[in-house]
Amino acid sequence: MNYQPIEHCGQSLWLLPDKAIYWPARRALLVADVHIGKAASYRALHQPVPRGTTQATLARLDALLAAHDCEQLIVLGDFLHARTARAPATLARLQLWRERHAHLKIVLIRGNHDRNAGDPPASLHIQTEEEPWLLEPFALRHEPQPHPTHPVLAGHVHPAFVLRGKARQRLRLPCFLIDAHVSLLPAFGEFTGGWEITPADTSRVYLAGAGRIWPL
After folding, report:
1. Distances in Å between the alpha carbon of 44 and those of 39, 40, 53, 87?
2. What sign does the dihedral 146-152-158-163 (CA atoms) show?
3. How far apart are CA 143 and CA 157, in angstroms?
4. CA-based nearest residue to 186, from 174, 195, 197
């Protein structure tokens, strides 16, 4: 099994090794912090960074959409990294990718980077929503803030967990943090980094690495 099924707030969710959630009841793929064009933005600042990150991110989305029965893709914020991410080559790749998935509904809950970058071009046919966007039983957000009536699924902080060995070994892996009030998805995009979390006793942590999900 290349996913971890969990029950959360009365829903069956599949935690996927490639840092996404599949929600079978909604036929939805959920990702957070895609950060399209981040490397291009850094190169615009004359920083030496890898090339091909946008293409790699879109290829991973292709693979997930092919592997799961999806009617919609829901992005929990930070689809484009910055205004400099709107380089012609980046937008052209996005347009070709969108045309391959013309019948897919895409919803973007605006995050802090989206407010800076601006909404995606209209030709991409991406529905944009302010947070929180309610999709029962969840409140879908970018910022990991609680909601008064709905459990939250969010991104923003790029959660990671550090495994420590007896000989001072450290292995830092992206993770899902599942909590009754606010749950976090790892950053989906390439070249995004992570923030080390310290989970509460009431939270469940699932590590994503080596093509598997590892319950902590």
Report:
1. 9, 6, 15, 10
2. positive
3. 8
4. 174
C-alpha span between 183 and 177 (Å, rounded): 5
Neighbour tally for 174: CB within 10 Å: 21
In tens, the pLDDT along 99-158 reads 999 999 999 999 988 888 789 999 999 999 999 999 999 999 999 999 999 999 999 999
* Lookup: tokens for 78: 């930070």
Q: Six-digit token pair at 92? A: 């052209």
Buried b or exposed e, range 10-36, using 16+ CB within 10 angstroms: eeebbbbbbbbbbbeebebbbbbbbbb
Dihedral sign from CA coordinates of 111, 30, 6, 197: negative
Q: Would you tell me how many other CB atoms lie within 10 Å of the CB of residue 142?
A: 26
d(CA 129, CA 146): 18
80/208 Cα distance (integer angstroms): 23
CA dihedral (111, 71, 177, 181) in degrees, to 10, reads 80
